[in-house]
Specification:
Strand 1 (70-72) and strand 2 (75-77) form a beta hairpin. The chain has one domain (8-117). It is mainly alpha-helical. It has helices at residues 10-39, 47-60, 79-101, 107-117, and strands at residues 70-72, 75-77.
Length: 119
């Protein structure tokens, strides 16, 4: 068995990636609900819609003016929500990559990885 599996950094690394994935899933779910509710012209005054909009607004706010909203018969195609979902996914991937940079590796494992990357 690889000695890096028994490293003291393995369990915190695993937990850290779990936390990042959980946060990402929550953010993506809220933004996906927002996207679908806007697309389906949901009543913004309804309890569920209001809750989703209030939770997702701070997540979508930095992106709201990037693209125009496409409107068609009451529906709104919020391209910016899709952009927000992409950016949050990329951010989560970058954080997880940073976590893995702290993983303990053996010298043979590092050499093999370098050989693979330099081909």
């Amino acid at each position: 068995m690889d000695s890096s599996y028994n490293s003291p950094t393995t369990k915190p690394l695993y937990r850290g990636t779990q936390v990042v994935w959980y946060i990402l899933y929550f953010i993506e779910a809220m933004l996906a609900f927002r996207f679908v509710l806007k697309l389906m012209a949901a009543n913004a005054e309804a309890g569920f819609s209001s809750l989703i909009y209030s939770i997702s607004y701070p997540l979508a706010a930095p992106f709201l003016n990037v693209f125009r909203i496409t409107r068609l018969e009451g529906s709104a195609l919020e391209w910016t929500t899709l952009l927000a979902m992409l950016v949050y996914w990329m951010l989560a991937m970058a954080i997880i990559k940073l976590f893995f940079m702290s993983k303990t590796v053996s010298t043979p494992e590092a050499a093999a990885k370098l050989d693979t990357e330099n081909k």
